[in-house]
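tmp note - Heterogeneous nuclear ribonucleoprotein L
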Amino acid sequence: MYNCICRYHSNSNGKNRRQTPSSVLHFFNAPPNISEADLSQTISKAVKDVDPKIIIKMFPPKGTEARSSSGLVEFTDMAIAVEVIMAVNHWPIKCESSKFPYLLRLCFSSLPKGIAN
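out:
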């Protein structure tokens, strides 16, 4: 039986998982060859007040030919993480292997603080 209320919501809405703000951000859709220093420099370029003590943990690539990279970025304060997610989400990063820039995506992580060590 079809519920008339469901006609306004697509099935893809079920994939959206809301997370409360935290000091740990999950990043994805970064170039596959990006380094922790490059990512830190990108964040510092966008947000001037970022504490240089950010911790970045890169996830290992899936398969031999990874098309993008992902990982965690941990900040000392949740307010800084909120500012970074507002300024850096969808930030274009150029890569020599692609004619289009990668759009860096950020979201809050459900992992507790200190997990990115």
